[in-house]
Design goal:
Shape: globular
CATH class of the largest domain: Alpha Beta
CATH superfamily of the largest domain: Bordetella uptake gene, domain 1
Number of domains: 2
CATH architecture of the largest domain: 3-Layer(aba) Sandwich
Number of strands: 11
Helix content: 40-55%
Structural class: alpha/beta
Radius of gyration: 20 Å
CATH topology of the largest domain: D-Maltodextrin-Binding Protein, domain 2
């Protein structure tokens, strides 16, 4: 489940210089003919990840000079999109824009996910980190996690549900941590992505939810939901008044989730490098950085090797948390 750059080296060597040149020639021809590059996204249109993919895709189109199409393969917390990447030819025309869940978490909590990130995918580059946060809906008066807990105890008899974008995800483990720390009975309510969950929060169908900053930030700014806690070693720049879970007495929640781009294993290294370079150019554009920052991301380009190390470290951190929780793979 953990990425190792050493694992993909034999694949690269096996291709040989001739195959590299042939692959580059085919890719160049396809690009000249306008063959689009697909960016797979594992969540519905309108969700935070989809908005990020479309922001980057529009600029990558200009930098690469070829059409870039965002393709939503929603469902199962990104599992469907990940399986689609595995099935795609390693010709450089299919990429997967994903955050940590599909790569680092899902293979640990599902018995047969249908893919293995360590052997089926190769990281292209990372481009941002973010935080998962707890937000409460307008249907509660709570403006802090302590006020929310008090409200659950007094108005809900100590029992409540908290929405999560996918089952067996980091938000689900956070719900469990909240329940244990505050001695209340809160249970996760899984959704098919953050968009329908947020819609139910806006309609006061559920009183709280846990997702990423990009999923909540606009509604938080508009006062429609209130973010009351975030993971990470320090407060998020866009949420200076929101305490971290660490400040609130939780442990092991300092490592931040990541966003990055992945390709099918076997994709020729020159193509990987080309896309990495293009992504770096896009992230250097002031309007792109500003837009992603406004969404709640901490933007920072990470080349392939550095990004693979981040994925490896993050996966190991959550492997320990998941195992210590006693969670049994679904």
């Amino acid at each position: 489940m953990v990425f190792s750059m050493q694992r993909v080296q034999p694949v690269r060597r096996a291709l040989g210089a001739g195959l590299f040149l042939a692959a580059m020639g085919l890719a160049g021809l396809a690009q000249a003919q306008g063959t689009p590059i697909r960016i797979l996204v594992g969540f519905p249109a309108g969700a935070g990840t989809d908005a990020i993919a479309r922001t980057l895709g529009e600029k990558l189109k200009d930098v690469l000079g070829v059409p870039v199409v965002v393709e939503n393969r929603a469902g199962a917390g990104g599992q469907i999109a990940a399986q689609a990447l595995k099935a795609a030819p390693a010709d450089g025309h299919t990429l997967f824009l994903s955050h940590d869940h599909s790569i680092s978490i899902l293979p640990q909590v599902v018995k047969n996910p249908g893919f293995n990130p360590a052997t089926d995918f190769v990281p292209v580059a990372g481009f941002a980190t973010f935080a998962n946060v707890l937000a409460v809906s307008g249907g509660t008066p709570a403006k802090s996690i302590d006020e929310y807990v008090k409200w659950v105890r007094t108005q809900r008899g100590g029992k409540e549900t908290i929405g999560i974008p996918a089952p067996a995800s980091i938000p689900e483990f956070l719900v469990k941590m909240i329940s244990e720390k505050y001695k209340i009975d809160v249970q996760p309510a899984p959704y098919r992505g953050s968009a329908p969950m947020t819609a139910d929060m806006l309609g006061n169908q559920i009183t709280a939810g846990i997702a990423s900053v990009p999923d909540f930030i606009e509604n938080h700014k508009a006062g429609k939901v209130r973010i009351v806690a975030s993971i990470g070693a320090k407060r998020q720049a866009v949420l200076p008044n929101v305490p971290t879970f660490t400040e609130l007495g939780f442990s092991n929640l300092e490592d931040l989730p990541y966003y990055g781009i992945f390709a099918p294993v076997g994709t020729p290294q020159p193509i990987i490098d080309k896309y990495g370079d293009a992504l770096q150019k896009v992230l250097a554009m002031p309007d792109v950085k500003q837009k992603l920052t406004t969404m709640g991301l901490t933007v920072g380009y990470e080349p392939q090797g550095q990004f693979a190390g981040r994925v490896r470290s993050y996966t190991q951190t959550w492997e320990r948390i998941i195992q210590s929780s006693g969670f049994k793979p679904l």
